[in-house]
Specification:
single chain; mainly beta; Neuraminidase; four-stranded antiparallel sheet; about 0% helix; about 40% strand; Kelch-typ_b-propeller; Gal_Oxase/kelch_b-propeller
Length: about 280
């Protein structure tokens, strides 16, 4: 399921892009932009939505059946845009970090009922994302000049620095792999915003290497892993459309091939992705 800022444009798409069905989702208040710039994570098998650029930057909502229900509990910090959210490995908690206020390094933890503030990163990482590297939440890059290439990873004792990324990057996607490596997909150059990246990078043994090249360059989108495939939904792209690409992984976790399986017409920031059955929230 792809949940867009304009909920009426949300849809269900299958694995090869050959089938797309409108998803019927409702939300409180103005449903046309309720999820604008909001981020999501699955906690205890429920999809939660955090913050966003519309209304309350600290809101938490949950998808119940096909209705987005806002909770009374709030985040402790402002997460209007540029933030990131990541579920823990056992899906018992969500880590929500960075956000739209300086110093862009703060993090909250949500367990389905309560919110606590946790370790802050050393560097600002707004627009830097979160993914798993060696089983630990990790962030790359920033919208702030002194952290364009900085990489940090979270352990029980706080955040520590890893090898800098080779290029200035933000607005990318981070996907952790079963072998502990992490892939960085797309993004754009903070110094030259006109340059949108098409590379897929791998972090392994604290070294960055170029892994593959996308069919279309993307930034500001979202990616999700399902079995041995990664689905990339571009928020911005080069050309007149915003690509949907499938990255097929080989048995050793390397990128075997990348297929362009569709596109969407509108520009939006960080669509919410959720793995569901084909008939979820449809009229079928």
């Amino acid at each position: 399921m792809v949940i867009l800022p304009s909920l009426s444009d949300s849809y269900i798409i299958n694995g090869d892009g050959s089938s797309r069905t409108a998803a019927q989702i409702s939300a409180p208040g103005n449903a046309n932009d309720y999820t604008n710039a909001a981020l999501s994570a699955v906690v205890a098998d429920k999809l939660y939505i955090f913050g966003g650029a519309t209304g309350d930057n600290r809101k938490i909502a949950r998808l119940e059946s096909c209705t987005i229900v806002e909770l009374t509990v709030k985040l402790n910090n402002d997460f209007g845009w540029g933030h990131a959210a990541l579920a823990t490995a056992d899906n018992s908690q969500a880590l929500i970090c960075f956000g739209n206020n300086s110093p862009y390094n703060y993090c909250d933890i949500f367990d389905g009922s309560n919110v606590v503030t946790t370790f802050s990163t050393t560097y600002p990482h707004n627009f830097g994302g979160l993914g798993y590297y060696n089983g630990q939440p990790t962030t790359v890059g920033s919208g702030v000049s002194d952290a364009y290439r900085k990489v940090e990873t979270l352990s029980q004792n706080g955040w520590t620095s890893l090898a800098d990324h080779p290029i200035n990057v933000r607005g990318h996607d981070l996907i952790g792999l079963e072998n502990g490596d992490m892939l960085l997909i797309g993004g754009y150059d903070q110094v030259n915003e006109a340059f949108i990246h098409s590379k897929v990078w791998r972090l392994s043994s604290n070294l960055w290497t170029e892994e593959a090249t996308l069919q279309k360059a993307v930034t500001g989108g979202s990616a999700i892993k399902l079995h041995n495939q990664i689905y990339s939904f571009g928020g911005r792209g080069i050309g007149e459309f915003h690509p949907i690409q499938r990255l097929d992984l080989a048995g050793d976790g390397t990128v075997d091939q990348i297929e362009l399986i569709g596109n969407h017409d509108d520009t939006f920031w960080r669509p919410i992705l959720y793995i569901v059955d084909a008939n979820t929230c449809t009229n079928n």
